[in-house]
């Protein structure tokens, strides 16, 4: 064996039918978060063989496992994001004897740096995007995070009932914050009368619910704690993707693909917690099992980035501003993933590779709250951002709408994000400058460097663009009224429109209150894949509910041994 990036690596791939073992080795301390990407796992190179085993502690050793043999587990959980981790943890707490396999297509939590965060070009991380894949899932090691409680996530309340939803929400929130020395402060459940009046003047209403913002160091503590809690209890395979599932006498027969090859695993139950990585693959898998899903009602939109002071006042009162507008009684426009506290937020690239078919890769946008970014040198402000979405309009069926939008996006920019000044977006005119020229004129330090100036407005049909433009004006008027700030005409050139932002891409399968599919099949669908749960707390709620159902209604062999 030889050492690669601080882990042991087999010098050659195992022969067919042979047993490959990865032995315990010491690891180097983690590199600074934003160091220049280098070759190796998590830095644009292919994952090593060690990436598919369970890291113990801080990479001090690895579990020994056999790759060439068939294995059976009581429960297999596909996805180590909030839903999958909550499910695995609950299963093992309720029935400690269970044999639980946690499959994660991405890398270990310390091996998830994003080159875009460091000012570099999006490389796609060798086929597995570190933003949407890896231990922690949407809880990205190095970022902050928002934990929004009910009534954010009202579809879960409709699905579960109020009492059960509230119970699960408190369990999920307590699990996610239990490792923090100081409990996070909840805000947003009662905004000031001044904020209410400022939005009401434009006919808008703020949705009020409790939100906790975890700092970057706080989220690191949470992720490390979640990993430690499962260490030695669950079998964790990084770099291992579920590629097939079929019914079997033992429950489900799974096909798992890894850098070491393809392996068959049987499981008494399968829990899909595949998140954004499995945005289309999960629906295809359900289709093969004869489980139809309701197509999504896709929303399309933009992310607006601006000087953090513009959003700081309302962001301090409500870190997760959600406002829905119904224009002309038909078109709906809503904010999404607001990142506007005093420290602003960071725009993230989410690289979907070939998830949306052979037309080419697709990169969309996400936003993460921050609390610990340093003020840029000189007189520039930090950046803040929020997403603005409208319903796809005039594009036909859900499948046709998605295909139409992505075709236009690929033709316009090859599926890579574009940037345009707000003035040019609103007037649907060319941006008369390159991205480098635009960014040097800004009063703030943009959070993303890997952009190309272009016609973001051309991504949208006329009705979609009109809805986004009208929705933005009403919303921004309310925000500025609340802060007592005026936006001069020159401010239209100091706000960036970056696109595209997409939402509601997940189909909704038929599920019971334990998130199990019909006909008694030993399969549960949780988190984003359930189609009705968005948000870290909400995803964890579904994972806990699935685990409760499994331990309550199914006698597993591992529980009786």
Can you put this structure into words, describing what you see?
This is DNA polymerase beta domain protein region. With 561 residues, the protein is an alpha+beta fold. It has 2 domains: 71-180 and 218-294 and 507-559, FAD/NAD(P)-binding domain; 297-503, no CATH class. It is 27% helix and 22% strand. The strands form 6 sheets. Strands 5, 6, 9, 10, 11, 12 and 22 form a 7-stranded mixed beta sheet that branches. Strand 11 and strand 12 (261-272) form a beta hairpin. The chain starts with a strand and ends with a helix.
According to CATH, what is the class of the largest domain?
Answer: Alpha Beta
- What is the straight-line distance between the termini? 36 Å
**Chain oligomer state:** single chain
Number of helices: 13
Number of strands: 22
Report the sheet with the most strands, covering strand number, pairing sense and barrel closure: 7 strands, mixed
Mass-distribution shape: globular
Number of domains: 2
Please name the CATH topology of the largest domain. Answer: FAD/NAD(P)-binding domain
Structural class: alpha+beta
What labels describe this entry?
single chain, 561 residues, alpha+beta, FAD/NAD(P)-binding domain, seven-stranded mixed beta sheet, 13 helices, disordered N terminus, disordered C terminus
